[in-house]
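Researcher: Re-running this chain for the archive, since the previous output was lost when a drive failed. Same request as before.
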Amino acid sequence: MHWIWLAASVLLCGAALLTAWKVAVGPRTLDRLVSVDALVAVLMCGLNAWAAYSLDSTVVYGTTALSLLGFIGSLSVVRFRVKDKRRRPN
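Model: Regenerated structure tokens:
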């Protein structure tokens, strides 16, 4: 059973690294916004996996707060974002 938790943590860390890379490199603002949402989702999955591993349910409140903040943050960024400037081909 221990290898399942190890595999889950490795996969979640890999997903977090890939989405953090996409946040840093993303060519457009909306790409970065989707990546930040994915990073919040990966963080929530990691917190819930930790709650299942440690049998501690107090982490669920943090996950609920993260989901609400992620949703409200995404809506506000989409609502007030400035359009990207179009690049001219060289």
